[in-house]
TrEMBL record:
This is RING-type domain-containing protein. Residues 165-241 form a coiled coil. It comes from the Eukaryota. It comes from Monopterus albus. Keywords: Coiled coil, Metal-binding, Zinc, Zinc-finger.
Length: 257
């Protein structure tokens, strides 16, 4: 026996382990998703069938030792934890994110089990269609906007529609080109400033008026360089955005200004 028993579905240490009437144990979220996907209550190991959904209760004695590990950068906290444990699922109906413990009712209640659970999303409300309440998982190139599955069959029917990930990948390629052009422009301006400064040093007999004009020209170039560097930093930060939906939403917002 291993020191920490593992779930045969996720092959990881148990998280909110629950035992079925047949005696086999699984993570509550794992067996809940297994039944949701297959549409039948059956033990994945012995194939025991349950005509009615058995009441799932967690076995606290098998909880993993890392249950209270502090959140890492980028992890989403549970909306219902006072200690803010890491969320493992987001619910598109409740518009909330849950840790493995607070997610239990969604696998135990007949009403809640009909809710659509998705991978954890940071900005949950921004990921849901305001018209249909469905996940925004498509992009309409015709209207340059993020849409849900129902949108693609109604207001955007017949439009050029692709997946969120495909559109994000395309826009990141364009973003990379913009960054390269911006860096070249910055380098050109820096070279121009350097050239002007060298000419001033070589020609020390410039009139007071000429020196003032040169100083003003250098100041304008430095201000332009500063603005270009700020834009470059913003593009760099945007390119590091891993969430495809959030990336596209930022791109759309930026394009509208």
């Amino acid at each position: 026996m291993s020191e920490h028993p593992t779930c045969c579905i996720c092959l990881d240490t148990f998280s909110s382990p629950t035992s079925l009437p047949c005696g086999h144990c699984f993570c509550l979220a794992c067996i809940g998703e297994y039944w949701r996907i297959h549409g039948v209550c059956q033990c994945p190991l012995c194939k025991a069938l349950y005509p009615t959904r058995p009441q799932l209760k967690t076995d606290q004695t098998l909880l993993s030792d890392d249950a209270a590990v502090p959140l890492k950068a980028g992890e989403v906290p549970c909306d219902f934890c006072t200690a803010k444990r890491q969320a493992v699922k987001s619910c598109l109906v409740c518009l909330a994110s849950y840790c493995d413990i607070h997610l239990e009712p969604h696998y135990q209640s007949e009403d809640l089990e009909r809710h659509l659970l998705i991978s954890v999303v940071k900005n949950l409300e921004d990921s849901v269609c305001g018209l249909h309440g469905k996940q925004l998982d498509r992009f309409c190139r015709s209207d340059q906007t993020c849409i849900c599955a129902m949108c693609s069959q109604t207001d955007h029917r017949g439009h050029h529609i692709v997946s969120i990930n495909k559109e994000a990948a395309k826009k990141k390629v364009k973003l990379k080109r913009r960054k390269m052009k911006l860096k070249q422009t910055i380098q050109d301006r820096l070279s121009k400033v350097e050239k002007i400064e060298r000419s001033v040093n070589l020609c020390g007999e410039n009139s007071k008026e000429a020196r003032a004009q040169i100083k003003e020209a250098i100041k304008e170039l430095e201000e332009e360089i500063s603005e270009l560097q700020r834009s470059n930093a913003e593009l760099e930060q945007l390119s590091q955005t891993e969430d495809s939906l959030h990336f596209l939403q930022v791109c759309i917002t930026g394009a509208s200004h």
